[in-house]
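Justification of computing resources. Each target in the renewal requires a structure prediction run like the one illustrated here; the chain below, 437 residues long, is used simply to show the kind of job we budget for.
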Amino acid sequence: MTGIEIGILAIVVLIALIWLGMPIGIAMLVVSFGGVMMIRNETVAIRMAGAVANDSLRQYLFAVVPLFVLMGLLVTVSGVGKDTFDVFQKLLRRVRAGLGVATVFANAVFASITGISIASATVFSRVAVPEMTRHGYSKSFSTGVVAGSSVLGMLIPPSLLMIVYAVLAEESVGRMFLAGVGPGLLLSIMFSLTIIAMARFRPELVFERQPDMVETEDISTLDVLRKGMPIVSLIVLVLGGLYSGFLNPTEAGAVGALGALVIALARRSLDRRSFWGLLVESGQITVSVLFLIMAATFFSRMLAMSGLPAMLADMILGGPIGPWGFLIMYLALVIVLGCLIDSISIMLIVLPIALPVAQAAQFDMIWFGVMTVIAVEIGLLTPPFGLSVYTIRAAISDPELSTGAIFRGAFPFVLTMMLSLAVIAAFPGIAVWLARL
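Resulting structure tokens:
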């Protein structure tokens, strides 16, 4: 067999193993080892496996993963999410469907210090949904808003998906973080306009009864400042340090984790047992992510050795499809895969194949990463996988609320995200201007 044939066989076997239920990291290691052994020999495969384990995980950069994960978990338990929602509820109380818009912007701000979409979905399903339904919003719309806006957690920095992409594409984590700011703001604004337009032109999809007839607990300007100060401080510490160049991503993660710990201790929301639990959870998430990165690195090197990515680049870019045809096909594939498997797994499977083609097409790799993350995040809202939707369903535990109702409520935001992909494709500067400064 030729190297290209072995590369194709490896991809087919990988998909089959995942379909049969094998964990994706183990499947990648098995397929990669077998592929290298077939292309070269067993000795080369063993040496490459050792080199990958050493080279891909010993970098100082990877300390950013547990630090940002710990920061996100600390912020979640400290009650900052509810305070953020209260602040935006106060600021947008006179806007029609203002609670929906408040949920979007509160989620955007909360995302800027957690980096995990599932954390946002869990927090705001318990904070925003009861408040919105109390004010006459339908349960389907309320949960759809939370599901849609929760995807901002993987786009607005710090973002776990941005870290994974930066490692696989060998790009700067700091620049990838900064590249998510413009698209994150764009998506927040487009979500808000979608909510306002639905409330104006299709109110039956938004409200179950006359909205805003329930008295809302008013909070003073002093309370707004008190509740907003912790999250603003963390944003300034993390993003301000990154943007100014004063902190590298790992240092920013350390400062952010320390700041989140101080906030949690000041609010007395943390004891020894819960803190130990957070440390264990951070370790578990970190180990799983780094193991997947190691497996994906091995898979990428095996494919490069087979010559398959180079052949695909020549065939796609030299044929009638062209660079933009490849981009459309790639994004469509990522969105379809999002209906079936989780976000990180999608990136680990497709990027080793797609990155060489994107580089040959002379795409800006930071822009390509932002497009990839948005497409991957659409999968969090689409059936049958829809991880954010199932997270919200589990967090609310309302027997009258079906999973299908949440998917229907999230559907307008899926369309909005697809429109945002088109806008960023047409105007790449939205994604790259800040990262290139």
